[in-house]
Every structure is written in C-alpha cells, then in structure tokens.
Amino acid sequence: DVKPVYLKGLFSVSTTSTKSVPAIRAEIIRVLCQLGVEFSEIPRGFTCYHIPSINL
Known about the structure:
By secondary structure, this protein is of the alpha+beta class. The protein has one domain (1-56). Helix content is 34%, strand content 18%. The chain has helices at 13-16, 21-35; strands at residues 38-42, 45-49. The chain has a two-stranded antiparallel sheet.
C-alpha cells in the first residue's frame, strides 16, 4: 500500500535553511535521481515513487 505523507506546516525554507528555494529544489532532484527514485513535481512539492530492489 502506498500512503501519502504530508509535512506541510512542519517545515519552512525560511526557518530551516539559508539556501534559496531553487537551490533546495535542485538538491532534492539531484538526490532523488542519484537514489533512483522516480518522481514528478507537483505544486509546492514532489510525488515520489520508490520500488525496493529487494522483494520482502
């Protein structure tokens, strides 16, 4: 089962980082690609799909 996780309101760029929003976005995209996580951008965030390489 896929369950959405919503973090809205818990964190804010202005209170948790000195980096700009575009810099943070680029870093998130870089790491998702590096980890092989499929994603799509949605307004104000990302929808991520990760399929484990090991069957549990």
